[in-house]
Each structure stands twice: as structure tokens, then as C-alpha cells.
Amino acid sequence: MAHSKALLVLENFIAGKFVPCSSYIDSYNPSTGDVYCRVPDSGKEEVEAAVKAAKAAFPIWSSKSPLERSQILNKLADLIEHDLEAFAQAESKDQGKTITFARTTDIPRAVYNFRFFASSILHHTTECTEMASMGFMHYTSRAPVGVAGLISPWNLPLYLLTWKIAPAIACGNTVVAKPSEMTSVTAWMMCKLLEKAGVPHGVVNVVFGRGAKVGEALVCHPDVPLISFTGSTLTAQRITEKSAPHCKRLSLELGGKNPAIIFDDADLAQCIPTTLRSSFANQGEICLCTSRIFVQRGIYNEFLKRFVTEAKKWKVGNPSDPTVDMGALISKEHLEKVRSYVKKAQAEGARVLCGEGVDSLALPTGNQKGYFMLPTVIAEVKDESCCMQEEIFGPVTCVVAFDTEEEVIERANNVKYGLAATVWSSNVGRVHRVAQRLQSGLVWTNCWLVRDLNLPFGGMKASGIGREGAKDSYEFFTEVKTITIKH
């Protein structure tokens, strides 16, 4: 018990207060394999209390003007930014990502999420039409829906949690949020800033715990009319089933099996470093990461040689080392799952050109028990292989050759997912043609992960339902009403 006192112990945040829980879950530092934090193992009782608090706060919060809410969101953004280094350190330790990625991507984007929606909420317009000859005028109005249930994943913890909280409360809703039980620390840290930012008690409630208990209680609660979820397609299927009796509004941002299509006129000097990043950034634990690389046969050998050479240069190790390119995977179980795909590929006759099982990984003494894996490149893998069909969600990418534009479009679309794709070519006409025909919610050409938050984000097919972004999030988190006036 003496050891447990040294652990960081989190508490739920309900009605503006931190509330202890009767039981806890061990949370591990992925880079050491040690338990360092205890997360509430909440359930139906805690969700009930949080929903009650959110319902009670809704009338006051929803009656505030967009400008008043905007000012509070901007204040919260300022407070997080002021503590950016502390948030980055916590995110790196909790998730396993490099401190550099947390400093430059996760926390700055969390800050920007609040600032962006603080601004966009001031600029939406409604519709108005007139039937002059008949003496009628029609217009629309929008109002917040109520209590929003927000369920966010472990890969970009604060980044994706704030991507949901910011638009929900900007629109005047109150929220009950459930971060992943594996990466809860930065959500808890954010809760400490809410009162100082001016967020009224009960507007933002955070209940920590497992999806099977907290998530399910939230999804099934009759007083939570909308659910925004980012995570696996399998979990989304369960959310859809459980929420159906209540006719809840759903936004589901799910998995991907994202292709990069590299034509023989691609600028490899730009393409190779960007495709390395799109394959291995954040340990490959981003839903937008590239896991299938289609290279036109004329440049296939050259691309493969250069790509593998550069992949071997990526430094894997202690996430707090600013020179490291890749940190640890989220858990021991996830590491074993990712490794199993490499073994399956080898069993099918594919070639592992670098990384897992091929190169040795030297780790600092303190990280020997961490969940690390080298960037892994697989070639000569069949399209029907599980490595080309299933989301691996780790630092593994497959490189295959293609001959024609028509062929590669068909092969790129031949998966159940449709989240993102990248196209590399200097032929402008071809870039437009291919982008139009790819079954992907996002298509980047000659770049990757360039985002304008005004525009829709989301996927096709098994990659999700609905879109997120300025207009799309506003429409999701508000209820529209058409009003007709006879004059």
C-alpha cells in the first residue's frame, strides 16, 4: 500500500467538483511498463450524477449569448496554452508519444480547437425564404440540443476530447465526457482550469472508466440525446445498437485503412519523407495514418529502396528524448496485436524489409519493459491479406506495385473503410480524377494531414457516420426549426 500512495490518483469531475470513486483502474506508463496512475473505475451511478448535473446546468448555459460562450472558450484556451509544457509532458507520459509530438501537435491543437469554435460560433447564419405572392416568409432558427455524450479515444487524448467538447459547449449544450481509461490524465488536468475560465458548474462533466461500464451507461441514458464517438468500428456498432431504442443522434468517427497512391511522376524528394511521417507518426496510432502504399511499377524499386533506407533512420526510444522520432505503443496488449500482423504477413509469404523481427531495437535501461516497436515495412503482400484489409493501428505499412490508374483506384477502394487517402503526382488532371473516384472522406494530394477546420472531417463506409468541422459540428450540436410567418 505504501507504493500506491506515490501513484497519481484521478477523480471524476461532476457538477464543478472532483469526486472520488470507490474503485480504480491501473494506468500504465507505456514507455516503462510500470503502473503510475489510478483512474476511476466508474459506472452507472457516476454517469447518472453527471447527467443530472449537466441537465441542471443546461438552462443557464444555453441562454448565454454566443459571444459570452465564445469569451469563456477563449479563456480556457489561454489557460491550457499557459500550461502547455505541463500538458505536453503529461500526454507524452500517459500515451507513450514523443514529447516533441505532444508539444507541437497534441496540445497546440487542443488549444486551437477551443479558439476555432469560439470564433466560428459567432459567424453562423440561418436561412430565410419568402413566398411574396402568397404572403408568407420562412426562416430557420437553431438551438442547442441538451446533454451531449462525448466518448474519445486514447491515441490523441486531449486533441480529440477538445475537438468534441469545444463545439458542443460553444453551441450551448452541456456535456458528459468519457476519455479513454488508458489516457485520462490531460482531461483531468483540463478540468482543473474550467472554473478559472468561467465555465459554470455542470456544463462540462468528465467521468473516467471503461467503455463497457461508463460508455454504455452514457449511450443508454434517456436524457442524453446525442452521442459523439471516436474509436473502433466494432464499438460503434454496439453504440448504434444500444442507442437505437432512444433514437439518439450519432456522430461516429471510426477506423481507416488509408492508401497512399504514388504515380511515376511523383516528386519523391517530397513524397518519401511525407509518406514516412504519414505511416509512422505517433507510432502509427492515428486513424489517418497510411498503411497501404501503392507505387507505380516504373518507380517501385527505387521508392522501396529509398523508403526503407529512411525508415531505418527513425529513432525509437524514450519519449522524453527530443531527438526520438517514435515513442511507445499504448499497451502491451496492443503491441502484441500489432506484432501479430507482421507474423501473419510472413506466414503468407510477404517480405518484412525492416523493423519488427528484422532489425534490433536498443532501448535505454529505464525503457526495457516499455511497449516499443521499430517502423516496419512489408512488401510482396497480397491485397486480400489481413495486413491490407484490417486496421493495424501501429507502425506497420505495406508497399505494393501497380500498373494503371484504373487498377489502383479499384484496389485502393477494395476495403471496408473509407477515411483518408493520399495521391502523389505532378499531373493536375490525374490528381483531380483520382481524388474524385477514391472512396475516402478526405483526400490529400502531394501532402498529408493539412487541415482546415472549417471543412468536413469524416469517413465513408465503415469509417463512420457524419462529419465534424465548423458547419458540420454546428449542425450536429444544434436542433434546427423552420418557422413560417403569414403576413
Task: Summarize the model shown.
With 487 residues, this protein is α/β, with parallel strands linked by helices. The protein has helices at residues 44-63, 66-82, 84-95, 99-120, 157-170, 185-197, 211-220, 233-243, 268-280, 297-311, 332-347, 386-389, 405-412, 428-437, 470-476, and strands at residues 8-9, 12-14, 17-19, 24-29, 34-40, 128-131, 136-144, 147-151, 174-178, 204-206, 226-230, 249-253, 258-262, 290-296, 351-354, 376-379, 396-402, 417-418, 420-424, 442-445, 460-461, 464-465, 478-486.
Question: Structural class, please?
Answer: alpha/beta
Biggest sheet: strands side by side, in what order? 15-16-17-14-13-19-20
Q: What share of the residues does DSSP label as strand, in percent? A: 15-25%
C-alpha Rg, in Å? 23 Å
Beginning-to-end CA distance, first to last residue: 75 Å
Total beta strand runs:
23
Low-confidence stretches at least 5 residues in length (pLDDT < 50)?
none
The average pLDDT is 97
| Tally of individual helices | 15
Largest sheet: 7 strands, mixed
Give the oligomer, counting copies of the same chain as homo and different chains as hetero. single chain
Shape, principal axes of CA atoms: globular
Percent range for helical residues? 25-40%
